[in-house]
Amino acid sequence: MTNSELQELCLSLMRADTEEEIVTLLTAAGFWNKPGRWRYIGDTENNYSQVGNQQAEPIASLAEKLVNSIDARVTNACLMAGIDPTSDDAPKSVRAAVGRFYGDGADRNGQIVNWGKAKTLAESLLITVAATGHKPETGSPSITIADAGEGQEPDAQPDTFMSINRSNKLRIACVQGKYNMGGLGALNFCDTTNRFQLVVSRRNPALLSAGASTRAHQWVFTIVRREPPLGNQKHASFTYLAPEGATERDGGVLAFDADQWPIFPVDDATGHDAYSRMADFGSLVKLYEYKWKGSKSNIITSGDGLLRRLDQALPELALPVRLYECRDYGGHTGSYSNNLTGLTVRLDLDRADNLDDSIENPRRSSIDIDGQRIKVRVFVFKKGRAKNYRRDRSAIIMVVNGQTHATFSKDFFTRKNVKLGYLADEMLVVLDCSDLSGMTRDDLFMNSRDRVKETEISERIMDELEDLLKRDEGLRELQNRRRKEEMEERLSDNQPLADAFKDILKSDPTLERLFLTGTSIPTPFSRQGSGEGTGGQFVGKSYPSYWRFRNKVQGEELRRTAHHGSSPRVEFETDVDNTYFDRSDNPDFHEGEWRVFRKDVDPPVAIPGCRMDGPREGIAILHLTLPADVGVGDELPLEVEVGDDTMVEPFVNRLTLRIIAPGGGGGGNGGSASSNRGRGDRGGNSNLTLPEVIPVKESEWGTHEFTENDALRVVRTSGDDDRDQLDFYVNVDNKHLKTTQKNAKKDTNLVLLERQFMYANVLIGMALLNAEKAAPGPDDADDTEKDGTGTEDRIRRLTAALAPVILPMVDVLSSLSIEDAISG
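^ thats the sequence. predicted structure below, dont judge the formating
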């Protein structure tokens, strides 16, 4: 083929958006039905196992492509600075690389949030995502990712884009991708029989040697396709077009001469051309008819569109990305293009409108795993605002170098060891695992980087997170306030339905014995509030001038008891601001560090497994993990060090714990040593407190995520005695209830039918909760199933399934006579 023919074929493949178009183009060029002109990805015939065993979710797979583009730009910047990316002179993380090569003097840590709009836009134009093809309402779009990164030579394709399990980035600390799967997981979500993917690339000419060949300067292009299994093969395989006499050293892919090539979209609200802005070098990857939930909507403006979904998949994006909607879609200027900057940047910019300002927000803590720190940030949204920033399935995200590696659903917040049901719809938790060692990350995450392994490490992290949320007084106070507001709204003019329900339960000894713990309902609103965000009296300093035990002078030793097997809590007071231990979004100030040393051994050793909550408004709480070799009667001397790079010497606080038997007396400044952390135990009383029963009308379905088929939603919180406080929301406009009322006889009491439906559902819900509390076994501490659903969700699904038969069953059973039973 001539150079102009190769150019025309490349551009035609770029502009094609359907499987039929691609097959037609490749057939006309003489490549389609010629197996000898296609080469196996990774030079492995059985490559399906690597390609197929990737991310289980299309957005996570697409995020991998963007990570590769960011890595390409960072590597290009490093090489252009004359630095070998694998050398000791190279930055040690992608964040440090962005700060060094793209930041300025005031932006050491490369935070997009500190860039102005002009700089953010300029950088975003060099990594773009464009949607083309099907109209938003008719089908899945093709997605094109382009970047001005280092690019690759034609004959480097077998070792770069078309490689598997090569060590291309393994020794490069300043990039994020390490697994060398080439972002191949995205092939699984191309909604075509052949799973087409196009690759176009050119190496940055400034990085080529003086004696580089003409071919090394060319633009390369190839297309990936899925081959059906032949003969005795069990699986398909993936190949790429390489018709130029491929050898082990020669990629065999097509290439052409061009000083520039149109790989970028135009940033013009009046145009929709995805391939019009020229690039001197870089790479383009096109995924044909890429399918995800929400793919039929505008990728920019839809709440479930690509922009918002990628925000969640890349919450701390290293470099900004520009998204373009290039399909035939009407709308205002912002409907065509917008920047992707990552979830945390967007949260910071939108803080005033979306985050609840009645408490410190976000709430910062750090978890210690064998001496390695995981930074934890808990965001609490105003009512109804969380839906723009998280999905129910990704209310907890685990992040490495800004990329989400695993998520957990909002059901985590309703676990019986957390019980934050009234905040479950409005919370987002980010666990930054970037500081974990490579070995620990390997033990924690699957290679697909979209879920955790079920290991001791993941269980410890989840246990710590449960305990962190459970013990956060600010969250408890906020939950009580929100529950009180909702209850007062609904029940201010009526006697609570729980009073009537109490009479039903007390009318039967069995029901009373199962469900009632007393004759009265304790008030759930006794707490008066923590004072967070009320008046702004505390103004923290950039660096602490003191860090001491609460109600002690600096340097005064603290002596106290701790129960054997417990996790003692120790409170500190300080004058530093709330971000002291987590300043990833405040790079102008040094970040604080804390360590706990055991002093009864020589030399002293750091104790792993501890956790520091805060500081919050001048108070920080240290949760200690007692060493396994410490027994009853021992004294354990500890030193808690807190400091940062601005200090000559850190603050040192000396603590001595006398270990006593579980259940013995104790004491201590700022909270006694608890006998346990509430992990795996059922509490002292296995019964349930009497619930509030609240009817929900159709107009309120959105608030409770009800449909016409749903019947019951249970929200679980904690009372002052830490027993479950239950609120039962019953859908009184359920389709089956309304049908029964419509078809009832004229003299039927319709209100009675509604009450029967309500109380039957509540009894079913309480029976399931009671069974949960009584169920023995090692899984007691975790009421979440492998599919991510918890007890509350199982109650919701079961009562929806039973809703059609509840009232007919009540009617039939209530009219059944002894004679009927005998004759049956």
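Residues 178-182, 517-531, 665-687, 776-781 have pLDDT under 50 and may be disordered.
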